[in-house]
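Why do we bother with a discrete structure alphabet at all? Because it lets us treat a fold like text: something you can write down, compare, and reason about line by line. To make this less abstract, here is a complete entry for Heme chaperone HemW. Read it the way you would read a sentence in a foreign language you are learning: slowly, and without expecting to understand everything at once.
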Amino acid sequence: MRKCPYCDFNSHERGALPEQAYLQALLTDLEQDVALVEGRTVETVFIGGGTPSLLSADFYQQLFRGLRQRLALADSAEITLEANPGTLEAGRFEGFREAGINRLSIGVQSFNNQHLQALGRIHDSQAAVAAAHQARQAGFDNFNLDIMHALPGQSREQALDDLQRAIELAPTHLSWYELTIEPNTVFYRSPPTQPDSDTMADTESAGFALLADHGYHRYEISAFAQPGRECRHNLNYWQYGDYLAIGAGAHGKLTNVTDDTVHRYQKTRLPEHYLADPGGARRQWTRVEKDERLFEALLNGLRLPGGIALTQLTATSGQAPERWLPRLQPLVARKLLRVENERLACTETGLRHLNTLLEQIADQL
């Protein structure tokens, strides 16, 4: 395995995977934090990467046995595993399903072999198609395909062909997003040539129409789902919900309803350091002050085309809309934000320029 040149996630190139050692570290880590969520039911689990599909089905069977012994995991919990097509031999999906995983997120990125090579992916188009078929044959009736556009050297027609081929595989969910160049990546140090902004905008508009025509509604800035198949775990993020962090480099956010405090934290980033002291992995336990919560909630909630309820913003921040909403009226007047049915949301133009809009909101607040 190797790290892709666009990836800024907490992934590391390593040799043999110390499955049992990492399993025990995860459970030890959890035991230090379980008191923080005492009495609460876990509704979703998301196993992200790196490449967690490299770990065996037996690993996940043991992990979920340990989780259920320590946490109240809802019977209807959504349990998602990220999977890369190049790491999946025949039969592995069946094992994941038997372990209790009921949703997959498959990192296809493209069906064009030339573009896959440019992205540093280890799979080809055939492997991507096979992964989707294998998922369905293994009993997964709920899975996402990740597809990128604005790839180096990619034309509008090629981007839409990728999207059409993904739709033909009939996933319940599609994540379709622009390749962004992040700091601390190979692409940041040596930027590739991407399509110009007009081509990107035209491709995006045509792609949105294609997705809508096939029954995928846009419920987040880059997430599209069949009715009732939205990712519950990610919706929890975007609606400013709480999440427990377990594992090397994991980030968490927790609310203490007793004293109305919110804290963010993370776990030791390097796998070797994490394995050496999983019981002391929690780092940067930082209180989010009330005057910071409003912007944090907007930062997440405005990613949703439907926006966020004013009542939720009041509950989150302790500030009535009358105190801060007038400061955003210039952005409403410029048709970047809208207030409808007691909800604050972006307009289409606002969503298209969300990062710039959020900077302006931060300046106003």
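What the structure line is telling us, in plain words: The first strand starts at residue 41 and ends at 47. DSSP finds 16 helices and 13 strands in the chain.
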